[in-house]
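[09:14] KT: can someone run the structure on this one? pasting the chain below
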Amino acid sequence: MPTYDFDFARFIFSKERMRVLLKKADEIPIDAVKQRGLFGKPEECANRLERYAKAGVEHLIVNILNLNEDKAGAIRLYGRPFSRFT
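[09:31] RB: done, structure tokens below
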């Protein structure tokens, strides 16, 4: 079992932590986001995700952001093509 320096299960997204994370996010070069980020239609994201799987990635944290705030609908929509990785 791998060990991690960061305990994701205990991380709490407080308003203060989100403020710090968003400030840090502004420092990430946009080219890095475009190269490594997953964004687009569900099948497009799944195809990019497949590249990570083929490279040996076994664990990934996904946060689905959508503008219409229907998180449950977005999870269902993206969950279908992403399910091939479970």
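[09:33] KT: thanks! The longest helix spans residues 42-54.
[09:34] RB: yep, looked fine to me
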